[in-house]
Design a protein that fits this description.
Helices cover about 70% and strands about 0% of the residues. By secondary structure, the chain is mainly α. α2 runs antiparallel to α3, α2 runs parallel beside α5 and α3 crosses α8. It starts with a helix and ends in a 6-residue tail after the last helix.
Length: about 160
């Protein structure tokens, strides 16, 4: 899908960004919190962080052409080349709150800034889709192997404290 067609269909970069980035991530996180209101429940971390990682991956995967148009090149009428994830403040805040509550419940302190960790986690998922060919120029890994690696890394870093 060409960048010109994307902007012709969506009107402007702000509308496209809202429809492709802000709204899907807000829905994803709202649904996640609705289905999992208590992040301190036993077994919570592993059972729900892996499916959320997969869902975030799929949002990038299903909309990769639009994300590429948003993050590279310029809008045909001019403008900034790459928007920020500013519209995802709600997603980031809820993610940090979920992990923070798990640490607090365990009486532990995270070893890194969770706000930074959550943003880097999203960036890693984004890069695994949008930069896949550049990251793996010799042989692109199997989709499921890539998602499992992302799930493991995110679970290990953002899953909250390890169970006793």
């Amino acid at each position: 899908m060409s960048e010109t067609l994307l902007f012709r269909y969506h009107g402007d970069k702000a509308t496209l960004y809202n429809e492709v980035v802000t709204e899907p991530f807000a829905r994803l996180m709202d649904d996640f919190v609705r289905r999992n209101p208590d992040p301190t429940a036993p077994g919570f971390s592993e059972a729900v962080s892996r499916p959320l990682t997969r869902q975030v991956y799929e949002v990038f995967e299903e909309n990769s052409a639009m994300f590429r148009a948003l993050f590279t090149g310029q809008h045909p009428a001019g403008g900034d080349a790459a928007p920020s994830f500013k519209g995802l403040a709600h997603f980031f805040e809820q993610s940090v709150d979920q992990v923070s509550r798990r640490y607090e419940s365990a009486g532990q302190t995270p070893t890194f800034d969770l706000d930074i960790g959550v943003r880097l986690g999203l960036g890693m998922i984004c890069a695994s889709v949008l930069l896949r060919d550049a990251l793996f120029p010799d042989s692109v890994p199997d989709r499921e192997a890539l998602i499992r690696a992302l799930e493991d890394i995110i679970q290990a870093s953002l899953g909250g404290p390890a169970p006793d």
